Amino acid sequence: MASTQPRRGDTRQRIQDVALELFTERGYDKTSLREIAERLEVTKAALYYHFKTKEDIVLSVVEDLGRLLDELIEWGQAQPHTLETKKELLRRYSEALADAAPVFRFLQENQATVRELSIGGAFKERLVTLSDLLRAPDAALTDHVRTTAAMFTMHVGLMALHDVEGDPEDKRKAVLEVALDLLTEAHRSR
């Protein structure tokens, strides 16, 4: 069965895409490397060249996402701590989430595996750092809640609207608009 994902020139990326697709459809535990190879229409040996185990695939995907988040954090830390910077940080995060939607669906659908592989801790740490960049250091508790809710909105929106009819870009923009409203309100109440 051919993948519904567009084929990319990068074999490693294709393997990650197809594996995430299968892990989300069938579950991590119920998907074998053989099934991934079959969906890719390659031999198991060709798959082994890039990844020895399913865990290796998942860890590589999370590491790739982690690098993306690290770049975003590094950018945010180098900018002035203004409302415009915070808004741009949320915009960039929104685009990163859209690009990483399959990863987040996998994380949502396979929470036991995520806990078992101990990949949630570093990811959570990055999200806390992003959230801190959105919040003023002396923020009141209600503003802390608003900035946390802005981040949460980005994640929940990605999951909750996945099955809602409509253009994915329109849905992403609607979620971003709500998150930006929360962020602006947190900044305004200072």
Question: Which features characterize this protein?
Answer:
190 residues; mainly alpha; Arc Repressor Mutant, subunit A; Tetracycline Repressor, domain 2; 76% helix; elongated
Return the domain count. 2
One letter per element, helices H and strands E, the order comes to HHHHHHHHHH
Helix content: over 70%
Relevant CATH superfamily of the largest domain: Tetracycline Repressor, domain 2
Estimate the mean pLDDT confidence. 87
The N- to C-terminal Cα distance equals: 56 Å
Q: Taking Cα atoms only, what radius of gyration do you get, to the nearest Å?
A: 18 Å
Beta percentage is under 5%
- The parts where pLDDT drops under 50 for at least 5 residues are 1-8
Which descriptor suits the 3D outline? Answer: elongated
Can you identify the CATH class of the largest domain? Mainly Alpha
Number of strands: 0
Please work out how many helical segments DSSP would assign.
10
The fold-level CATH name of the largest domain is Tetracycline Repressor, domain 2
- Can you tell me the CATH architecture of the largest domain? Orthogonal Bundle
- Sheet/helix structural class: mainly alpha
Largest sheet: none
Brief overview:
This protein has 190 residues and is mainly α.
Tell me about this structure.
This protein has 190 residues and is mostly helical. The protein folds into 2 domains: 11-50, Arc Repressor Mutant, subunit A; 55-188, Orthogonal Bundle (Tetracycline Repressor, domain 2). It is built from 10 helices and no strands. It has helices spanning 11-26, 33-40, 44-50, 54-78, 83-99, 101-109, 111-116, 120-134, 141-160, 168-188. Helix 1 (11-26) crosses helix 4 (54-78). The chain is elongated. The model is unreliable at 1-8 (pLDDT under 50).
